[in-house]
Amino acid sequence: MDHPRKERTLVLIKPDGVQRGLIGEVIKRYEQSGLKLVGLKMFVPTKELIEKHYLIDPEWRVKTGQKTIDSYRKKGKKPPSEDPLKITEIILNNLKRYMVSGPVVAMVWRGMHAVGIVRKITGGTEPLTSDVGTIRGDLTIDSYEVSDIDGRAVRNIIHASGSPEEAEKEIVLWFNEKELINYRLVSEEILYDVNLDGILE
Ligand code: GDP
Ligand code: MG
Questions:
Q1: Which ligand is nearest to the Cα of residue 118, counting in written order?
Q2: Atom number in ligand 1 closest to CA 60
Q3: Which ranges carry the Nucleoside diphosphate kinase-like domain (predicted)?
């Protein structure tokens, strides 16, 4: 296994993040953590790309459908269907409409525990309950309930890979290896160097 400092993760700023003028704020938050930006581009994705992206994990349909049913029950509400697959069919269609509605910013961030650090900075999926201090908790206001009533995807600004394995599969989908840059940042010296013997003259 590669050293954890070489971990990579995919981040997408979704169309609502771009429209709200949050590109700079979002990049700032990841950049300040010490992670390294190694790939960056902006374009309008196709529905095919979005479908491939969400179906990379063969379990996604069942897991997300079940999660939705559970979250309705927890709130004492009746889920829109008892069949997880029916629910994810709707979620996926809404996601496809949302994600191709305008440009998105796709990025690859690299560094120690990149996946976990980015998830922490991003916050939980539903803005209503995402922690304060996170991107989804601070910068937007949506909920599953309202997005379901309105028949649209939850506008939560960001996609961030869920695990290192998922990240590697997603990166191949969104980037050519040639678009990703191998380089050193001077700050890596203080983040990773074991001996710290290059500072004092
Ligand atoms: P993420 O990794 O935090 O983005 O969350 P997931 O991978 O679990 O879900 C991917 C996307 O599916 C989310 O960004 C939401 O748009 C949608 N989604 C996930 N869970 C739910 C849910 O319970 N209800 C609704 N309406 N949408 C959901
Ligand atoms: Mg996910």
A1: 1
A2: 7
A3: 6-182
Say which CATH topology domain 4-192 has: Alpha-Beta Plaits (3.30.70)
**Of 74, 82, 85, 95, nearest to 148 (Cα)?**
95
Report the pocket of ligand 1 as residue ranges, CB < 6 Å: 64, 67-68, 71, 91, 95, 125, 144, 147-148, 153-154, 156, 159, 162
Q: How far apart are CA 29 and CA 122, in angstroms?
A: 9
Local confidence band at 129 (pLDDT 50, 70, 90 cut-offs): very high
Per-residue pLDDT tens digits for 10-54: 999 999 999 999 999 999 999 999 999 999 999 999 999 999 999
Q: List, by residue number, the catalytic residues.
A: 159
Alpha helices in the chain (DSSP H): 15-19, 23-32, 47-54, 60-74, 84-99, 114-122, 135-138, 144-150, 164-174, 188-192
Question: Do the Cβ atoms of 198 and 189 come closer than 8 Å?
Answer: yes
With 0.85 as the threshold, say if the pTM is over it. Answer: yes
Q: Which one, of 60, 69, 77, 25, lies nearest residue 162 by Cα?
A: 60
Report d(CA 189, CA 176) in Å as an integer.
Answer: 28
Q: Whose CA is nearest to atom 13 of ligand 1?
A: 125
Instruction: Compute the distance from residue 56 Cα to the ligand 1 centre, in Å.
Output: 14
Asked if residue 106 lies in contact with residue 12, where contact means CB atoms within 8 angstroms, the answer is: yes
Cα 127 to averaged position of ligand 1 atoms, centre (Å): 11
